[in-house]
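2024-03-11 09:14:02 INFO worker-7 job=invfold-0412 stage=load source=structure_tokens
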């Protein structure tokens, strides 16, 4: 029970720090997403390996926005076997550029990119290429980790250097958060739990701003609620031109 309590306390502390320090960046991110939606632009989310779990959290999700599209590339996600290949793939130079060039992303769109360290070439290249194409980049990262590790990108940049808006997940270097006596290395990473809370909060603010502008945001309801399938079908039909995962 001690470690359960310590971990939950740690998550609570980090979320409090996020609220104290990251609310302005989260509000800027929400405004970018709201403006893009209101202007008929497209929204994307991207991350490699476990960072990609948050891209999956955001799309085709109860309570989420139907027009958020995951950007996925072969070898970068955890369905890859062997899983260790994903760590090598995210270090490939220019692969991130190719992913952006092969995607529907264009000027005026917005992409959320998640990487705890922000050091690997795929995420940096994706961010740089997206901005070259005129899209806005929202980075979710650990600034403490980025400052502690050298970039693997040829430019020396981290993800936080290549984004329009940077949200710090306020996690510790290396992500794992707890020391346990007799155990080498820390356990219990925080980036997924905290990152999901951050991004879902940003989406909630985005939806509120779209509503304040007088437009109905494309929000999914649970398909397991009566009438859910019919409602979601109408949402998908209304935003079909901005949905690329169907």
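2024-03-11 09:14:09 INFO worker-7 stage=emit residues=246
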């Amino acid at each position: 029970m001690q470690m359960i309590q310590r971990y939950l306390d740690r998550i609570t502390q980090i979320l409090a720090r996020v609220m104290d320090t990251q609310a302005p960046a989260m509000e800027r991110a929400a405004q970018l997403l709201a403006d893009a939606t209101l202007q008929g632009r497209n929204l994307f989310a991207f991350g490699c390996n476990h960072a990609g779990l948050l891209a999956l959290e955001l799309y085709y999700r109860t309570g989420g926005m139907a027009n958020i599209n995951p950007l996925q590339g072969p070898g970068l996600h955890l369905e890859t076997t062997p899983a260790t290949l994903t760590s090598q793939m995210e270090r490939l130079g220019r692969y991130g550029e190719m992913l952006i060039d092969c995607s529907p992303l264009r000027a005026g769109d917005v992409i959320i990119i998640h990487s705890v360290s922000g050091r690997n070439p795929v995420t940096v290249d994706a961010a740089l290429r997206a901005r070259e194409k005129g899209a806005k980049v929202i980075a979710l990262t650990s600034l403490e980790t980025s400052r502690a590790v050298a970039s693997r990108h040829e430019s020396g940049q981290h993800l936080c250097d290549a984004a329009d808006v940077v949200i710090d997940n306020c996690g510790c270097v290396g992500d794992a958060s707890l020391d346990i006596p007799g155990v080498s290395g820390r356990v219990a990473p925080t980036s997924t739990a905290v990152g999901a809370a951050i991004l879902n909060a940003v989406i909630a603010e985005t939806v509120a701003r779209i509503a304040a502008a007088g437009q109905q945001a494309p929000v999914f309801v649970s398909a397991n609620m009566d009438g859910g399938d019919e409602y979601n079908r109408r949402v998908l039909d209304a935003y079909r031109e901005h949905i690329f995962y169907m």
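2024-03-11 09:14:09 INFO worker-7 stage=report msg="Strands lie at 43-47, 68-70, 110-114, 136-141, 165-168, 176-178, 187-189."
2024-03-11 09:14:10 INFO worker-7 job finished
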